Amino acid sequence: MQPEATEPEEDSVWEEPPSMLWGLDPMFNAFNRLYVKDILHMRESCQVSGIYFYNSHPIFKVDVLGTVVYKREREDFFCYGVDDGTGVINSLCWKDEQWREQGDPATLWARAFGSSACEDFNPASELKKLRQAQHSSSHLEIGELLRVRGPVKTSRQQREIMASTYYKVSDPVMAVQISWMMEVPQLYRQCYDKPFHLDSSAQNIQGGSASYLLGRATRILKDFLKEKEVTRFRPYDVQDLLQPLVSRQPQKTASEQEPEAGPSSGPPTSFKQLRELLQKSLQILQDEGLVFRKVKCQDEVYHVTERDKDLLMAVRDILREDCRREKYAEKGCHILHILSSVRQRYSRNVSKAALVLVLKALECNSDIISTSDSHYTIL
Amino acid sequence: MSPAVFHFLWEVNFGAVKEGDSVRTFGRLVSYQPEESKATLSIQHAARQHQVVVQTTFVEPFDPIIGAQYIVLGEIEKAEGGDGVMVHARVLNCVDGVNLALLQRGVNEQRSYFRERGESKGDAATAAQQRAPL
Questions:
Q1: An example Gene Ontology cellular component term from the record (chain B) (predicted)?
Q2: A181 to B2: CB separation less than 8 angstroms, yes or no
Q3: A181-217 pLDDT tens trace
Q4: Cβ B95–A173 below 8 Å, yes or no?
């Protein structure tokens, strides 16, 4: 859609390409041989956590070759610190259950086949050799060379590789490390450092662009309502937030052969687009229950569900009163019962989705508790 | 933990790496004094022999093969006697048979890439600051 070809790391307003289009980038599906320094500094996506961006490319998995500089062993996993010369990163390597030193498989085999098994092939000893090979391949000491591939995770503020594959590399004359050092700069020059260009067909997908725009608009509104702790608002108050989305839109219809305009393509059409976008976004927020219109009248006032103290109190009072009654004492009130009570007492326009959010908020505050999937009671 | 950046022995001797920083370098093992836990690595460059002392306390016992190529990973410290630096090894691996010319080319290839990118390896921290924050 809008990704600029500028260097994303320098441009603080660089926008991520929409997640729907990430699959178009071959790097998204590959184990990328990035330097550890770059892995540690990639920016995390704000659309999907666990995906990172290097130079506008969405990165999911990496492939690292480096020296083990520290090691932590637990019963189920190793945590190796891998140093490739540009940085050090944690690598979480799970131990393979089936190769645990138990001796049972070998003895089972021996019992099953006995020593009268074929002379050339003794399953028990072959299995033992296999286990030893597996053991030596996964148990590394400091100074040994480790190859690790897997997705990147950020855990406790630290980047880590969750190894899907890892093994000790035998490199007595540094041949592997040298070829790695020669190849990786080439990979960078040829792939990683070239920005991710969406070709024009991807950008002009009408459906895609519309839903992408809507997605962005709702996100902008949600972030705004959350940051500014808004309790109530009118559409006019938030209209301007969506202005940049509308003015940056590429020419929509193919029939308009206007020369490439700058920011806005004329006040009337862009204002209409803005109103339309705003309406649709507000409808989505209502459908999700994040906002509701307490009173439906000329004056379009939206209440932010979770900040409406009166609504929260009303729901709490309903539960408090009803749960005293014998009918609801044991099991609590069903959500639909609460919904009809709220609609009678507070506002006819509270949706089930909004009520769910309210109940969640009250439960987080320990004012109420859910007794079953759809029953709640007062605490 | 700071990464152990590749440096050549002559660069280490000329103070290319700050005290306390990690470094990775290589050379031929010319001598080993087990009682002092000191080894000396040497490399020829530009018609000169360059040597550096390696403190081997953390990597002992190791099987010293005099004349073989070794790669060392460790921290730079002031040499005893105050003259020059030494490497306090955390890793000391024999890589005898390594193609030195190719290794040097590999290191230079990586460096020229980073130079193209507009940052020096030692400046990785400042370059990272300029990028998008985590």
A1: CST complex
A2: no
A3: 999 999 999 999 988 776 655 555 544 567 778 888 8
A4: yes
What number is the ipTM of this complex?
Answer: 0.85
pLDDT tens digit sequence for A73-118: 999 999 999 999 999 999 999 998 776 655 555 555 555 555 555 5
Write A371-375 long-range contacts (CB < 8 A, 24+): A371/A331, A371/A332, A372/A331, A372/A332, A374/A334, A374/A335, A374/A336, A375/A331, A375/A332, A375/A333, A375/A334, A375/A335
Q: Facing residues of A83 across strands? A: A67, A88
- Most B CBs within 10 A among A53, A70, A181, hence the mutation to make, goes to A181
Interface of A to B at Cβ within 8 Å reads 8-10, 12, 14, 36-37, 40-41, 43-44, 67, 69-70, 81, 83-88, 142-143, 154, 172-175, 177-179, 181-182, 184-185, 188-189, 193
For the entire predicted model, the pTM comes to 0.62
B98:A173 CB<8 A: yes
Q: How far apart are CA B51 and CA B40, in angstroms?
A: 7
Contact call for B99 and A173, based on CB within 8 A: yes
Cα separation, A314 vs A333, in Å, equals: 14
Cis before residue B61, ω within 30 degrees of 0? yes
The pLDDT tens digits of the residues spanning B58-93 come to 998 888 999 999 999 999 998 877 778 899 999 999
In 3D, which of B73, B84, B83, B86 has the Cα closest to residue B36?
B86
Question: What is the helix (H) or strand (E) element at residue B107, kind and residue range?
Answer: helix B100-116
CB contact under 8 A, A178 and B5: no
A165 touches A148 (CB < 8 A): yes
DSSP A139-179: ---TT-EEEEEEEEEEETTEEEEE-SEEEEE--TTSHHHHH
Is the separation of the CB atoms in A138 and A79 below 8 Å? no
Q: Which residue does chain B place closest to A36, by CA atoms?
A: B3
- Percentage of chain B beyond pLDDT 70 is 88
